[in-house]
User: What shape does this take?
Amino acid sequence: MDPPIVSKKRRSHKNLSRPEAQASSGESQATESLTILWSLSIFATLVFVVGVVLMWGAMALWQLAEGPRDTLYAFSDLLLFTAVVTGSVGGLLTPIVQSRRKRKAPKSLQMTALAIALAPWVLVVIAMAGR
Assistant: This one.
């Protein structure tokens, strides 16, 4: 007995590119782009801060010799600088994004984003006090 022939329905690429086919959130494209930039800068800051703290912990735990230790200090300083830059961008964008969006983020998310944005500056103070 032969299996039944099932036809494959092909999707038209024209239908997918129509504006009606895409979900609309009610936000402008500029606002959506600004929101994405804000969230990526906050996430990148978090990753860099965690990297700095892990590197500082590893250097304190292993008490490396001078050669590798200097390289790790330089790399952790580079990560800290990058965290300060991305954190400053994310911190400055937080109120801007919230004022532009029709549907605002919860207050807890806004406060968490600001805490992450300020974390690199706290690490800079700690680094300056420790050296």
In short: Residues 33-66 form one domain. The mean pLDDT is 84. The first helix runs from residue 13 to 16. The radius of gyration is 24 Å.
